[in-house]
Amino acid sequence: MKLSIYNIILLILLICSTFVYPQNFNNEQNYSHLQGLQFIGKGNINEAIKYFKLSADSFSYSDSYHQLAIIYCDKNTVESRVLARKYIQKAIWSDSKNIEYRLLKAKLMEKFSRKMAYDVYQEILNIDATCTEALF
Fold first, then answer.
1. Is the CA virtual torsion 120, 121, 122, 125 positive or negative?
2. For residue 107, is pLDDT > 90?
3. Which of 55, 56, 78, 120 sits CB 3.0–4.6 Å from 106 for a disulfide?
4. How many CB atoms lie within 10 A of CB 111?
5. Exposed / middle / buried, residue 12 (Cβ in 10 Å: 0-12, 13-18, 19+)
6. What is the rounded (10 degree) CA torsion for 59, 64, 66, 69?
7. Which of 54, 73, 135 minimizes the C-alpha distance to 99?
8. Cα within 13 Å of Cα(98), Cβ side
9. What average pLDDT score do residues 87-95 get?
């Protein structure tokens, strides 16, 4: 009898933790991302990068990958464009139908190769034929 009550209690605790943990997971993910956005608003890019990296690396949050790609794309150096490309690709892997991510990738690809950019614009049009920004 004691064993079955113990098992029931253990099962209840396991079920409760399953429902509670994802909420905490999302809160921390959103907190890190929102902190990054606040630091961008204050003009503190280095702190923003730290928070976006935390959100991206710890939680694979696609919006944080996107923000990192924007930051590195705006730095407009060869090294930063390579990092931007890495981060935008991770964002796309997380959310493959996101047009905004793909438009940033296409803009970035224009710096590397017009053919690569054309291919990305074509992918966008295959997802959404009404996307006028993708008309290369």
1. positive
2. yes
3. 120
4. 15
5. exposed
6. -110
7. 135
8. 17
9. 94
Distance separating alpha carbons of residues 92 and 100, to the nearest angstrom? 10
Query: What's the CA gap between 119 and 63, in Å, rounded?
Result: 23
Residue 13 has pLDDT above 70, yes or no: no
Q: Is the pLDDT of residue 55 over 80?
A: yes
CA-to-CA distance for 112 and 12, rounded, in angstroms?
55
**Residues sharing a CB contact under 8 Å with residue 77, sequence separation 6 or more, in sequence order:** none
pLDDT category of residue 6 using cuts at 50, 70 and 90: low
The answer to whether the beta carbons of residues 51 and 39 sit under 8 Å apart is yes
User: What distance in Å separates the CA atoms of residue 63 and residue 29, rounded to the nearest whole number?
Assistant: 10
Question: Taking Cα atoms as reference points, which of 81, 83, 36, 38 lies closest to residue 63?
Answer: 36
Judged against a pLDDT cut of 60, whether residue 25 lies above it is answered with no
Identify the DSSP state of 133: G
